[in-house]
Specification:
Strand order of the largest sheet: 3-11-10-8-7-6-5-4
Helix content: 25-40%
Order of helices and strands: EEEHEHEHEHEHEEHEEHEEHEEEHEEHHH
CATH class of the largest domain: Alpha Beta
Structural class: alpha/beta
Distance between the termini: 9 Å
CATH topology of the largest domain: TIM Barrel
Length: 465
């Protein structure tokens, strides 16, 4: 057994083991409450969390308003109800043990409104807020207002330095920790910057040491770093424990807790993860957020990859380079390079007859069925992101639009995550996962399709296994 020493997290000494918060509906009050019950940190997602009717049944997220702005407000109202409901479930299951955190996607439109709505009505139930996918400058101020601890999710010392200098230096009392999420190892959205090469991973150790040195220079020696991304078993990370270069450290488990009895993900989703092989998770940039993300390669992603590979540049007018006419959008004629003509015709002849523009003066080829579904998804947009490349929604613009044309190389992220989180097809929806997911297939804890309880998983983790 590893010599795991409790550390101070959100005002209480707990084991340095944290459940990663995964939305939509991949971590909820059941899973987070079970983690807290074992004197660890449980984290439920604040992105479209479920809430319940008077009989305890999940209320399906159904939007009834006609306008996108009105549907957006419906989404916010339901997220607040769901956040409160999941906090109550987690608190009851925890039996007062451990800590309960809520994870919020900062790039979710009106994330601050959701946080304020939940925290104002769930006092004493939530101990901390973790927040990533963007630069959550106002997180410290908001958390301090409600007396809960905050945990920014960053992927580099540089990112934390910007947050500290611009905002967090004024709100030190409730800075509970800094979550370092390795951008090459984590599942879901990753914080790769334009200066970093997605094909050339850097060593987490060196980046964490750099972060600790920066934090120490600001007098934050006692504040723990929570290591996230690629964490499977602690024996892989023993040199990080009791290491003076790193200091106080906790470990966040994202993918492994998805296959437990208390995990809310569907049995079909769990079955897929039990069969994933090394290399089946790919880092790509199809998300409408514009961020890189890691997900299991399935029919959903393969279709996006095929569409991207079939992309062709065009020009509005004919010139020496762009000589071949191509009719797009049913009526508009543009010009493509002669070397791309065969590529275009092969796609059209294969049934990809809908030719659609991107914001980058290129075109992609789709089936009529896929184009029809894409139009329907855009029509039903609920404005879930602050900026969306798929629907062009912008929460900050006076016109509620990015001013660009919709990008057919991406997808409605709210729809696909909500549907797969509520029993939808695991082939035809996005399956976020970390790059260690292939280890389910060889981990003795999951032998013969066994699904452990959270307690059984944590007991293994405490042993280093």
């Amino acid at each position: 057994m590893l010599n795991l020493k409790p550390i101070l997290i959100s005002g209480k000494e707990v084991l340095p083991l944290v459940e990663g918060g995964k939305g939509i509906n991949a971590s909820d009050g059941r899973s987070s409450g079970a983690w807290a019950h074992e004197n660890c940190v449980g984290t439920f997602s604040g992105v479209s969390p479920d809430f319940y009717d008077e009989k305890g049944n999940v209320v399906a997220e159904i939007f009834t308003s006609k306008t996108r702005a009105e549907r957006h407000q419906e989404m916010i109202d339901m997220a607040i109800k769901g956040g409160i409901a999941q906090a109550q479930v987690a608190h009851e299951i925890s039996n007062g043990n451990g800590r309960i955190h809520m994870n919020m996607l900062w790039e979710m439109a009106d994330s601050q409104a959701v946080l304020e709505g939940v925290l104002s009505k769930a006092k004493g139930l939530i101990n901390g807020i973790t927040c990533g996918a963007g630069m959550p400058y106002h997180l410290g101020e908001l958390a301090t207002k409600f007396g809960v601890y905050y945990y920014p999710i960053i992927s580099s010392a540089r990112a934390f330095n910007i947050l500290w200098k611009r905002a967090y230096n004024r709100f030190t009392e409730f800075l509970g920790g800094v979550v370092y999420e390795d951008p090459w190892l984590a599942g879901g959205h990753n914080g790769l910057s334009n200066a970093e090469n997605p094909e050339q991973p850097e060593t987490p150790y060196n980046r964490i040491v750099e972060l600790r040195r920066l934090m120490n220079s600001y007098g934050l020696q006692a504040i723990p770093i929570i290591l996230a991304g690629g964490i499977w078993k602690l024996k892989d990370w023993e040199d990080y424990i009791d290491n003076p270069e790193i200091g106080n450290i906790a470990f966040q488990f994202g993918t492994r807790p998805m296959i437990t009895k208390e995990s809310p993900v569907s049995e079909a989703w769990k079955k897929v993860m039990l069969q994933v092989k090394k290399g089946d998770v790919i880092l790509q940039r199809f998300s409408p957020t514009g961020f890189f993300s890691s997900a299991i390669k399935n029919t959903f992603l393969e279709k996006l990859i095929e569409r991207k590979n079939g992309e062709i540049a065009y020009n509005e007018i004919s010139d020496a380079e762009f000589t071949e006419p191509l009719v797009i959008n049913e009526h508009k004629t543009v010009f493509i390079k002669s070397c791309d003509k065969e590529k275009a015709m092969n796609q059209i002849n294969a049934g990809l007859s809908e030719i659609r523009e991107t914001p980058d003066k290129t075109v992609v080829f789709m089936t009529p069925e896929d184009w029809k579904q894409m139009k329907e998804d855009r029509k039903n947009c609920v404005g879930c992101l602050s900026q969306c490349q798929f629907s062009t929604w912008s929460a900050t613009s006076p016109t509620k639009s990015t001013g660009k044309i919709p990008d057919p190389r991406t997808y409605c992220i709210h729809k696909t995550l909500y549907e797969v989180g509520h029993g939808g097809s695991v082939k035809d929806h996005l399956l976020f996962a970390g790059h260690q997911v292939y280890r389910f297939a060889t981990d003795p804890l999951y032998r013969n399709g066994c699904i452990p309880s959270v307690k059984e998983l944590i007991d293994k983790i405490k042993n280093g296994d």
